[in-house]
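User: structure tokens for Haloalkane dehalogenase, please.
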Amino acid sequence: MTANVLRTPDERFQNLPEFSFPPHYQQVQDDSLGSLRMHYLDEGPRDAPVVLMLHGEPTWCYLYRKLIPPLVAAGYRAVAPDHIGFGRSDKLAARSDYSYQRHVEWLGQLLTALDLRRITLVCQDWGGPIGLRILSEMPQRFDAVLATNTLLPNCEPPPRGVADWPGTIVRDWVHLTRNLTDLPIGETVSSVAVWPLSSEVRRAYDAPFPDPSYKAAALEFPALIPIHPHLPGVAENRRAWEFLERFEKPFLTAFSDADPSTKAWEKVFRERVPGAKKQAHVEIAHAGHFVQEEQGEVLAEALLGLLNRLYR
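Assistant: Done. Predicted tokens:
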């Protein structure tokens, strides 16, 4: 381990509620940073269709613990990575070492190394901006998408984008975190929930971060959101949207009813993606931004409906 790469001690992940899944690791390469260890959960038959579940800011794969058991019971393979900087993955100590493009490249390396195919992408929060870019670059690996409380920022007016993007909530979040040196992770997740999370669950979200030095990714992720047309990622996202406008495979939306930050993107996905036209879209009640945490069972039901229509 080099001085600018941190690794959370394993004991931090012991005895977390509802989380007994064994860890898996894959090395990903970076031209400047060298080799980094990326963690992922991998449950279910290895030859089954894959459900790739991508978390966002400031969570980790713990977020998907309620979806994995029903997916495996139904015969599917559930894969849930931790982005570099989160969960059990390596963490870069310098905020400047993180970029939107690097997150896309690291995830792409993981999918290639594991040779994942017949993928249904489940993306929430930053899982959308990263995962939908990967979908547009590796379309042959994907069969379907479930988008929940996510976005693909393009800084375009309606109907191609969202009016008044980024809006007060996202803009304030970007400005707030820009100069922070610490962030209460568990409290942050709980703050956008309909009901406050228990102390045990908040502790689980805090687990990857023993002290503020481990939180560079969590602090920097908001600043990477393309909120102006000149920022990195806008051109690439617009190309991804061009791909999505030709994507005819199933594209289901399952946004919650009380998400304060991404709800407006639901309509854009439904109207611009051909594969969304005939889907049984759902709105999940009684959930804030992290719908997997508050209504994971309901989200799993919508996901299984999509999978069973696709493969059964």
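User: Anything notable?

Assistant: The longest strand covers residues 34-43.
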